[in-house]
User: Fold this.
Amino acid sequence: MSNQQPRALWASRLGFILAAAGSAVGLGNIWKFPYITGLNGGGAFVLVYLVCIALVGLPIMMAELMIGRHTRRDAVGAFIQLEGRRSFWLSAGWVSVGAAFIILSYYSVVAGWTLDYVYRALIGSFSGQPTEVVEGLFSGLIADGPRQIAWHLLFIVLCLSIVIGGVQKGIERWSKILMPLLFALLLLLFVNGMLSDGARQGLAFMFRPDFAKLTPGSVLEALGHAFFTLSLGMAAMITYGSYLSRQENLFAAGLRVALLDTGIALMAGLAIFPVVFAVGLEPASGPGLIFKTIPVVFSQLPGGYLLAILFFLLLSFAALTSAISLLEAQVAYLIDERGWGRPKATGFLAGLAFVVGIPTALSYNSLGDWHLIGERSFFDSVDLIASNYLLPIAGLLIALYVGWFWKGTEEKEELMAGGAGWTYPAWHFLIRYVAPLAVAVILYYKMEETGV
Ligand code: PHE
Ligand code: NA
Assistant:
């Protein structure tokens, strides 16, 4: 079915940039980037990550925006339109929308944890408490299924109420409110970090490259994260690109979004590590960095009561603007391909995400003994399927399609126009050779590693 009604577009360039940056800037920047940097030895990892963003992430982001804007369809419909029929490439759309579906279900549970922590911070659960008590709050939370489900539900309802408003009145409007707030909060926390006693150590940790700590595994981690952090392979950028005006310079738009995402990840690291060092804690504490170490830090710092509230609000806003892009990517499919109305599509998909998220929320309590893939819990299994398989598979298909099989060379050239003369050839080289090769390598090693 082709979609001939006039399609809603972003009202302004800034609106698009903020919405797309809102999708990109999420838990990946503020939770994951700092902790994987911590685990992989700091500066050298940051360097490798920047190279992965530039050579693989950015070209694929531009390819996704291009596909969306050119076809003005959801991620599945886009490939029908490009090929003029249902072909093998439809699988790229399906894998992307499937990834968005799976990721939203568990992303929302983790986002629910951040809401719980905003609440904890507000009622002063951290300030002045001994370390064991503060750290214990996290184990307490993940042991509590109903509590997680309640926050997960609240979070999904927030997403639903934004996405139901549509492109301009929902997503764009809220991105224009939440993103500046997010930026202001981050700036405060960044300045706080830079003024703290650990500033020097934090800076050294983030920027002094120690190549001895860099393993081949770190390189893969950096590549995989480049994908996740830019919201690639999950239909989000194709869908957001489909609302982008033809007047926009796509190269500049993609570059801005990637720069914002990277800048915010670096700022998050510089907000977090200095204060971690200031109270003499370990920077390499893994996934618990945000939910265990940071609350302990704030329980000991002067002004920690307020800082904790600001920090977890920041995290919640980041998660919300990302989750709405995951929901919108699926909603667009039902609207464009199935002819559903927006309210029905949004309600249905939000409900489904809620239901599928429930076993994730129960993964470390009632369903603790249920292993889906190998020894993995439900949560770890769905994360594995989405992050290790669906995202790279979608990315690989998209890079191959755009680099080798999209017949409209002139179109591609035109879509990439706007940069300097070298931008099209550079992009084309990266999307043809570098990106598919890099993604194929990640996919191979991830499969090897998980033995699935
Ligand atoms: N890019 C987001 C992050 O860094 C994650 C995300 C992926 C959000 C896909 C939306 C879509 O956290
Ligand atoms: Na990100």
About this structure: The radius of gyration is 21 Å.
